[in-house]
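Hypothesis: this fold can be encoded by more than one sequence.
Test: take the structure tokens below, design a sequence, compare later.
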């Protein structure tokens, strides 16, 4: 009898092994974030077979998960397919490009990339194991994230790209990584580690105890009993996560915000104490960053001392099991839904705030298979690779320049708070940093590849190698897409040259990215920026402005004799749109005259700065100067003049885009 049972068990194992699906591809991309979609699309367009693996049911990560108010930094840094994404979003809304959008529009756009390239997406599949031969990953084993009884799937590939926010593939492949904040002394930085600053801070006078003035009553929910360490001290604490909340004020598209399961009003005691200290702040925008999106929707983010950030409740997340992560996600969802319900229904909340909150609800047409709630928690930072090269504060500030650039970053060095604790008998938040003032800077190829002795066929464009504070500048969705395209291009080049990804010819990679920005051989923008001394000529006096333009700078003049010309030959014959970038600047001329010359034919145009509507996290917009038929190798010139103007004249950048 025992032999029979043993034989049946062996037979069962054999049958299960034979039923396991094995998939062979050239490039395997793990994580269906915005970066994951772009990486797989790029690999296919460059002639390779690719697969995309997503542990959930949706593509796009935060870009389709509620973060519609895009963190740009500087549009100049957003190149290739990342820029193409925002052009496609713009096309949906009838504009040239758009950086604010509804979640469903973003997800549809990512699905359009999948359809156009035709690669396979495996949904609800998460990483179980990674197999290696020396320093090369040979295959990964996947399990179903929703059905543990499902047969595992094996994916074999020549190259792997980890595009998840958590860095799971990187970690299971044995690649070095870190979690938390480095000490300032580790990399000669000044704003890493513990930072008690004024941003998103509790005002003075907020009592930390359940019974005000009575330490024996215990601490209010959300306040830690940890001791405040000296500024610059390193630790393993992780900046707060939250949801970027999509609500609607359209009654016909609204699902009411009701009392959620697990609701506990004691979690919001600090909000009540804020209301007491701030008696004149009676708008929701005083307690939330309430950004409007198209069609009466929102992208709501954290603001001030107590808001949507669930500070200190995510420390386990980066290295947690899948089960524990789901618990943390659920805790964040319950907290956030409870916060919205609290503001609308708790009688202790000032009436003005309750009345305003009751005008909002969940949108019927968003996240329709997830209770109209985003399936994507904003995992701002989890694991970070310790790779071939590490980006630091010095890179952000331009004190150290990476020569092997495969993308640009431009956003402020940004960290949300990491802990809420008692300082001098008051509640204070610690960890928020917002330090900018620098232009676009290069991101090293070495920061997206592991050390060569650890893994030679893996690229990591999301959980890249950077200190906590440098990562805070780099970690923006458009930049992740740029680095994903660079990663996939490098992966294809490594396959073709049969080499390790650490041995990639950087100059060849840079040239490929510049020459083929859409990864399909078609033309894209022909850009002439004001900093291009070869193609831009000036007369008269111009003042260089370093902040608020497209690229490193823009120029202004009040000299009536001044002019500036942007010249470039167009190689391919066809119809092109000509656009000029106009930053929103005070005291500009009511009309700025422009002459567009194609070959020997000139056309007079004008820019009216007062008509400029700037939307989203940007200081300017593209203004169309019309469509022109251009012969092959024909010279073009766009000349901006100050003659006859009645105020400041601005000049920044010109692009020619082919009409499709």
């Amino acid at each position: 009898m025992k032999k029979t049972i043993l034989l049946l068990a062996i037979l069962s194992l054999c049958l299960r092994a034979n039923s396991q699906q094995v998939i062979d591809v050239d490039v395997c991309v793990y994580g269906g974030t915005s970066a994951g979609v772009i990486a797989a699309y790029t690999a296919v367009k460059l002639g390779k077979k690719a697969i995309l693996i997503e542990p959930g049911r949706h593509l796009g990560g935060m870009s389709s998960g509620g973060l519609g108010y895009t963190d740009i930094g500087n549009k100049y840094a957003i190149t290739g397919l990342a820029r193409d994404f925002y052009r496609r979003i713009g096309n949906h809304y009838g504009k040239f490009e758009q950086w604010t959008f509804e979640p469903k529009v973003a997800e549809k756009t990512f699905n359009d990339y999948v359809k156009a390239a035709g690669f396979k997406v495996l949904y609800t599949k998460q990483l179980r194991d990674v197999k290696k031969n020396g320093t090369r990953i040979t295959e990964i084993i996947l399990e179903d994230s929703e059905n543990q009884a499902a047969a595992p799937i094996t994916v074999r590939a020549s190259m792997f790209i980890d595009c998840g926010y958590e860095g799971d593939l990187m970690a299971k492949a044995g690649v070095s990584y870190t979690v938390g904040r480095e000490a300032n002394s580790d990399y000669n930085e000044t704003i890493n580690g513990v930072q008690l600053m004024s941003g998103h801070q509790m005002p003075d006078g907020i009592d930390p105890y359940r019974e005000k003035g009575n330490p024996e009553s215990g601490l209010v929910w959300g306040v830690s009993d940890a001791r405040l360490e000296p500024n610059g001290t390193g630790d393993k604490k992780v900046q707060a996560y939250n949801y970027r909340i999509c609500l609607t004020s359209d009654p016909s598209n609204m699902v009411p915000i009701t009392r959620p399961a697990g609701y506990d009003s004691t979690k919001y005691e600090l909000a009540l104490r804020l209301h007491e200290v701030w008696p004149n702040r009676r708008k929701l925008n005083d307690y939330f960053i309430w950004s409007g999106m198209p069609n009466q929707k929102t992208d709501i983010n954290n603001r001030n001392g107590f808001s949507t950030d669930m500070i200190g409740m995510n420390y386990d997340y980066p290295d947690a099991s899948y089960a524990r992560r789901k618990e943390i996600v659920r805790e964040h969802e319950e907290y956030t839904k409870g916060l919205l319900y609290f503001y609308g229904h708790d009688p202790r909340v000032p009436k003005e705030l309750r009345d305003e909150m009751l005008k909002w609800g969940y949108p019927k047409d968003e996240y329709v298979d997830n209770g109209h709630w985003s399936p994507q928690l904003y995992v701002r930072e989890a694991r970070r690779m310790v790779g071939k090269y590490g980006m630091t504060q010095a890179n952000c500030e331009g004190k150290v320049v990476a020569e092997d650039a495969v993308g640009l970053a431009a956003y402020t060095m940004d960290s949300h708070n990491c802990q809420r604790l008692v300082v001098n008998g008051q509640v204070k938040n610690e960890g928020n940093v917002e330090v900018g003032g620098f232009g676009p800077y290069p991101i090293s190829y070495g920061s997206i590849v592991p050390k060569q002795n650890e893994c030679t066929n893996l690229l990591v464009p999301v959980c890249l190698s950077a200190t906590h504070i440098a990562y805070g500048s780099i970690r923006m969705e458009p930049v992740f897409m740029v680095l994903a395209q660079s990663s996939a291009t490098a992966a294809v080049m490594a396959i073709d040259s049969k080499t390790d990804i650490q041995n990639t010819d950087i100059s060849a990679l840079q040239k490929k990215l510049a020459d083929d920005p859409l990864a399909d051989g078609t033309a894209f923008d022909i850009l002439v920026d004001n900093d291009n001394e070869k193609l831009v000529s000036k007369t008269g006096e111009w003042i260089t402005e370093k902040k608020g333009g497209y690229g490193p700078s823009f120029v202004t003049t009040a000299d009536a004799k001044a002019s500036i010309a942007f010249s470039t030959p167009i190689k391919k014959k066809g119809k092109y749109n000509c656009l000029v970038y106009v930053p929103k600047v005070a005291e500009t001329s009511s009309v700025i005259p422009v002459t567009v010359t194609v070959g020997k034919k000139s056309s007079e145009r004008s820019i009216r700065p007062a008509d400029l509507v700037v939307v989203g996290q940007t200081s300017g917009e593209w203004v169309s100067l019309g469509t022109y038929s251009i012969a092959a190798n024909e010279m073009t010139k766009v000349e901006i003049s100050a003659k006859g103007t009645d105020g400041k004249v601005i000049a920044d950048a010109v692009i020619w885009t082919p009409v499709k």
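Residues 394 and 400 are 5 Å apart (CA to CA). The first strand starts at residue 21 and ends at 24.
Hypothesis status: open.
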